Each structure stands twice: as C-alpha cells, then as structure tokens.
Amino acid sequence: MFTEKHFRYVIILAVAGLIIGTWGMGARLLYGHKYMDYGSFVPWGLWVAFDLFFLGLTAGAYIVSVLTYGFRIRLFAALGPLSVFALLVTLLCEGIIISLDLGHPLRIYRFLLSPNFGSMLFWLVAFIVAMWIIYLTTFFLLLREQLVAWSRDEKRPGHKIYRLLAGGRSDYTEADRARDHRRVRIMSYISMPIGLLFFGMHGAVFAILLNRPLWNGAMTPFLFIMAALLSGGALITFLTYLFHPRDDLVQPLGRIVLGLLATFLFLEALQFFVGYQSKVPNFVASLDLIAFGPFWWNFWVLHLLIGSAIPIYILITRANDTKAVSWACFLILVTFFAVRLNYLIPDLAVYKLEGLQNTFFSHRLRTDYVPNFNEWLVSIWVISLGLLTFFLGMRWLPVEAAGMEEEEHV
Amino acid sequence: MSRELPAEDPLVRMQRDLKRALKKKPKEIQWGMVIDIAKCIGCHACTIGCVAENKLPPGVVYRVVLEEETGHYPQVRRRFVPRPCLHCQNPPCVKACPVTATWKTEQGVVIVDYNRCIGCRYCLVACPYSARTSDFAEWYTEGTPDLAGKLVGRKAAANGYEAHPAAEYGKKWPDRDHDSPVGNARKCHFCLHRLKVGMLPACTTTCIGRATIFGDRSDPQSLVSEMIGSPRVFRLKEELGTLPAVYYLK
Ligand code: SF4
Ligand code: SF4
Question: What is the pTM assigned to this prediction?
Fold first, then answer.
C-alpha cells in the first residue's frame, strides 16, 4: 500500500535522479553523441534497450483498457484511468529517450515531410503517434468528470487550472457522462487493432533484417507482443497493489502474468532451440553471447533466476497472497530490462563480415559495447522524470478519483 | 592501341571509359566496381585515399580491407577483400530509412542526404556488409596541445586536414561541430563529386595493385563490364538477394 511516507521517498529519489542525471544530459545536449560509447557496429545501445523496455510496458495498460472498455469486463474497471496514465508516462519516457538517441532529433518533422512508407521504423513511429492520440483522448475523457468537480472546489489549490484542463466546463451532466463513456469505448475499439499492430510493428523493425539471425523471422513480432504483455502486465499488477490493493484485482492479474511468463519463456526456449539446431554461425555466436558471454549473469541470474524462477515460485505457491504476488510482478518488471538488453545487443555484437575487427582501428568500430557512465546518467534522468511525472500526476490529477466509480460506468 | 602491345595501365583505360560514360545521358549510366582479390596486396592505400579525399573523422570509414585467413598451419592462406559500400541494387538500407534520407540514384549509386538524415542509425543496423558508419563528431587532432601562432598544434594540424570542408556530394560541408554530417549515417558514394569532374574515385586511383576497377556497367566496352563477365566473378553474401553493384574476382 502506498502511503504518504512512500510518496515522499519516491519524490526524493526521483529528484535526486534528475539532479545526478543532469551531468549526462549536459554531455548529450552539449556534445551530441561524442561522449557515449555505442559506435557503428553496435549502433543501438542502452537507450534503445530502454526504448524497447518502455514501449513494452505500455502493453499492460492496453490489456486493461481493452478488457474494461472494449469488452466491458468490470473486474478491472477501477484500474482504467490509472493504467491509461501509466501508459502515457511510459510513452513519454520512450519519446524522450529515443529522441536523445537520434543524431538530429530536431529533424523529427522529416517523418511528415519525407516519409518512407516501406520502412518499419516509419510505421512504428506512426503507431506510437496513434497510441498517443488514442490514449491522451481516452485519459481526458475518463478524467473530465472529476476535473470539472475539482475545478468547482474553490478551496482546492489550482482549481482554475483544473477548469482549464476540463476544457473550461463548469458542469457535467449525466448525458455528458454517457457520451464520454461512449467515446472511451469507441477509442478502445480503435485501439484494439492499433495496439496489436503497434506491438507487432515493434518486433517487425527487427524481424525484417535478413542479416540479423537472432532477430530475423516471423516469430519476432509475436515474441515482442508477448514480451510487452508480460512486462506491461507485471507493471499494472504492481501499480494496482500500490493504489488499489484489492485481492480481487491483484490476484487474477497475478495469474494472467504467470501465464504470460510461462508463454514467454517457452518462446524464448524455442528461439534458443531453433538457433542452436540451425547451426548458423552468427546465430550461434549471438546465443552464446547471451548465455555464456561476459554478461551471462544478465541472462541466468537477472532474467532466469530473479526475473523468472523466483516469480514463478511465488506466483504458484503464494497465489492468494496479494503482497507476494505484487512483489513477484515487481521482480519481473525490473529485471525485464535485462531481457531487452539481451535481445538487442548480442546480435549487434557479432561481426557480420570475417576480418572486420582487424580493418580499421577505432573504438566506434568494435562490437564489445558496454554502456558508459553518461549513458546510464541520461537513462537515470529519464526514468526519474517518468517517476516524478507519474507520482505527481497521481497526486495532482484526479486519476484515483476517476477510477473509483468506473465499475458502474462500464 | 593494339592488343599485342604491352598492356596499358588499367587506370588509363578506366579514365577513357569514364570520359565516354560522361558523354551519355545520366540515366543511361550504371556505375559499378570490380575488385580483383588476386591482385589486392592488402596495402590499405584505398582506405587511406578515401579517408583523405572525404576528410573522414575518427571512426568513420567508407572502405576497409578485410583480411581473411583460411586453412590450418602449415597450409595457411590469407586474402584481402576491400569492402566499400556495395551499392546494392536491392539495398536493405534504403528500405529501412524511415525518412527517405538515403536512396539509390538513377545511376545506381546509393547516397545519403545529410540534411535529411535524422541519425536513427537503422540503416547501419540493416546493412549486411557493415558499410555504413555514424559520425560522432570526433577529431583526429583532439588532445593535441595548441600553440598559438606556431605551425604546430591542434589548430594548425586541423587546418591542414580536418578543418578543410569535405567536398562530398559536391557541397562544402561546414565545420565539424553539431551540423551535418556530424550525427548522420555516412558511407561510400563512389566519389560522385570526383566523377562529376571526370575523375575516378579516390580508392580506384590509389589502388597500387590495380585491383579496383571502376566504370559504367552498362557500357559493354568498359573494362568494368569486361571484368564482370569473368568466370571468376562473385558477389558478397549473394544469398541475401541484395544484388551488389560491386563485384569481386576470385
Ligand atoms: S552495402 Fe550496405 S550501405 Fe551499401 S547499398 Fe548495400 S546495404 Fe546499403
Ligand atoms: S541514419 Fe539517416 S540515412 Fe540511416 S536510416 Fe536513419 S535517417 Fe535514414
């Protein structure tokens, strides 16, 4: 349960993260990519791994909102506004970190001026924008009633801002409520295919690359969808425990997460099996890097032990213990970053032409990438900003209040 | 020139081929390259020639010479495989770019528009030949102490080389700070700026083994076409279907 004391700790932590991370942000904004350690053979590093991580986390909110508003399942209705807000904050973090990863982030308008409709990356960005539009609108519609109520409360600090956020309205009728919920449902219907395409497209960015055996294949988009549902589901379960610690919500979510984790591990095992059986040298080299490379502990300890075996044990043996279920999901959530790194780096970290390592000396033309201090500092800054936005948002926006009466409306 | 006479330097013939090509309508030209591995001695002169021509900063390299070892001691062999951008006819890098900052010209050369590229590096990931590098704004002269007013020191050294604008794509690129090509994907462009004024690519003229042959693939009389017809010809990673316009001779 999230108390005032916890709130203070999180805010102090986030502010400290922002202050510490400023050093890395300064290096990035003043000197571009010069003081970062990725190069031309491992062109995507820590920030892209965080990008995958954040995009995946949005899936939890996607499931909840689709189940609640699309299929009108009441069970998770109380989580609607909370999960949509979590989705928006993770999208915000994703947007910031991937912009920092671009060589020329100010040219982002190029997506409009000279789009390449044949590029998977173009479509991924298009679907990210679509998700922003859908969920920002949904969030507004879900909160509007409470925003109007808060704006009418003269004693509430900043009530004029709430009026502004509510679109200047001072009354909210039963008809408004019905209309807004109808719109939320429509948004949810639209989000069903868009969301699936969004998570699938995320995988397709990697899946189409013929020269990358670990990524290339029809299974990759599916693996990405499962990875997103798993990490997103774990996030939502943990947040539910923090803000709505009801057994009837957390425990079924825990069971869903357990099923997703089992499916994900099965797919991962298949990938290893196919890779090792194919005996394609680059494929085997990438798998060897994951399992027996210098960062083997990432896979065995973080992902398989802390992020899978322990949570599975807890989710099976303590399925009726809300607190245990939530902490199991927390373990899955935080260690999932290791899964993303393990997916991204090992394929890049294998030279794709024999002899490339001996051609030209430069630390940018090496495959032994380890994120440097600046990259971590920038990541800490972005995560801290996300934490601050989320917890201040939970306090300053009527997210919880909007969730309270949701069950009736659904 | 009679065929019986001692063969002329291939550079002379390529120069003649180039002149002939430049008289054609641009869209009738198809630039191509053949690299004769048997002639490459692994001197890396082409790499250096290219770096100097295009004023490439540290970590950016368009043409490398791969060294491949085969066999087991004492039956060991080594061969050298220069690898520029292969100017694929079915280029994965072009398909990957989300903002059409890279494309294939009608003459078959894959180029990058530095002012359009957002620096996402997806093309670097997509190229099966690792032929693209990213510009991280580094300087070779970095760390060199500066002595004002003297001929030595960082500024003097940089003025002699790095501070000179590169002539890539026929433009004068500004100083290397934040502006393009810093932050962009960069790659070999067959020295288009040299071709325009009737000069062969820098790697071709610097190749002391005359292992690099360049010219118009669509001209049946050109040396490059003749070489492409050789039974020794092969292309790198042909199974990927990228159809490179750079061929190799075994
Ligand atoms: S070699 Fe690489 S960079 Fe050059 S055209 Fe082919 S895919 Fe593109
Ligand atoms: S780095 Fe530039 S050229 Fe390459 S895909 Fe991205 S925008 Fe296109």
Answer: 0.93
